[in-house]
Amino acid sequence: MLRRPRRNRRSSAIRGMIRETRLTPDHLVYPLFIFDGKNIKDEISSLPGNYRMSLDNVLLEIEECVSLGLRSFMIFPAVAEKLKNKTATYSYNSKNFYLKAATKIKKNFPEITLISDVAMDPYSSDGHDGLVKNGKILNDPTLPILGKMAVAQAKAGFDIIGPSDMMDGRVQYIREALDKAGFSETGIMSYTAKYASAFYGPFRDALDSAPKAGDKKTYQMDPANQREAMIEAELDTQEGADFLMVKPALNYLDVISLLKNNFDLPIAAYHVSGECAMLIAACQNGWLEYEKAMPETLTSIHRAGADVIMTYFAKDFARWYAR
Ligand code: PBG
Question: Cβ atoms within 10 A of the Cβ of 315, count?
Answer without folding.
Answer: 21
